[in-house]
Write the structure tokens for this entry.
Amino acid sequence: MKMKLKTADPAGVKTSGLIVFLFTEDRPDLNRRPELAGLKKIIGPRLKAGDFKAEHLAGLTLFPEKASGPQRILLMGLGAEKDCRPDRLRAAAAQAVRNVQGLELTEAALVLPPPRPNLEDPVVIAEAAALGAWLGLYRYTELKTRNKEEKPPLEALTMVRSDETHAKATQAALQAAEITAQSIKTVRDLVNRPANLLYPETLAEEAKKLAGEYGLKIKVLDMAAAGRKKMGAFLGVAQGSARPGRVIILEYRGASVRTKPLVLVGKAITFDSGGLSLKSGENMGNMKTDMAGGAAVLGVLAGAARLKLKLNLVGLIPAAENMPDGGAIRPGDVLTSRSGRTIEVISTDAEGRLILADALTLALEYQPKAVIDLATLTGACVVALGNKCAGLMGTAPDLIEGLKKSGQATGERVWELPLFDDYFEVLKSEVADFKNSGGRNAGAITAGLFLKKFVNDTPWAHVDIAGPARTDQASPDTPVGGTGFGVGLLLHYLRHFWDINKVLSD
């Protein structure tokens, strides 16, 4: 799809379908919307008659009896002004685009809604609407042999505004939305791909393709190289599968070589059977999603490169399958991590923190300004926060606050959980430095405390995306399956809050 920006009177835009957003307060007429004055005779009667009440995601298609202007007007509800946020606008734009596709139109125009108290910046409005439009087009079809596209594709979308101000910033926002959406699409495709097709070796190949396309530096460690790096915790997990593990290392340099990088670490268990601590068969097929953190890191690196962000990033993605063959680690085994610390394996199903332990230790060797890890780490976090919010823990208040603000701005919500030091007592081991699991109580927090042991004094944040990495309930901007959670959050954070001189306290 091609997207362009146009300043015009919406009533005069020649298009097959004109998307018009309305708030519930716009009824019973359009006197509050001067930019829609030319459409008042068409839309007003429907509002007065109560045919359209503008509830969020409600839609109505009108057919003007005019020779010029739009052939159809697609009304889309935004709900009450007080509830209007970027994520709600994004969902409404996604639904509007789906409605356009339902009419089998190949081009359309979208009138950007005006600023309102909870959504005042017109540039933010443009980016949210554009991102929603792109995400509304997403479908996972690469494995379908028939009916890949049930409707003709939407080839062009014109973003219409009545005010010429902020033209350069708005155009940049539309480009950022497109890049963010394409990065999310990449992650969703990877997360949705079945584990017989996506495993550590093929994930590394995908990373190489993206690195070549976007100018990223890449290095991939095989099992032997990981052994030479003394990544014993990672190898302990990977040794139970016929599919050998890989450690993917990506670098993006958009700043001086003297500028310390931000290191992103993503868990990539391409399939998690639980190992010898075998999971129940129910929903095990969804365990292909356990590489979503690694995929998100890959998406963020690609997005940052395309956005030409002026910063340095390193992405570390430990990739392995967690399987129960004859070579698998056993409960009671002790692994020696790259840090030199020994870990008693209580549960082989607490494998994510094992591969992250070695990756976090490796991250410190880049002398980073900060480290952020993303992982589908604990079911306990899903119990605590559900599937629409990620858990957030860390040691750097400024870093945590920036991620919270980005979560609010993007709708990829995070909620901070405490890291009570005394909770670490349950991880103490009689035979090793500590255990890899402390039981069910406060499971998300104790997992965070485990990871904290491997970052030393480096500013660090941990994002547990076990809940929102996948959805089983479709919404306008997210079909069932992988969500791409974390990409929008981190790209927004990098664009708006990451400043090594201001954001992080030394």
In short: The chain has a mean pLDDT of 95. The chain has two domains: 2-143+153-161, 182-496. The chain is about 35% helix and 20% strand. The CA atoms of residues 267 and 294 lie 5 Å apart.
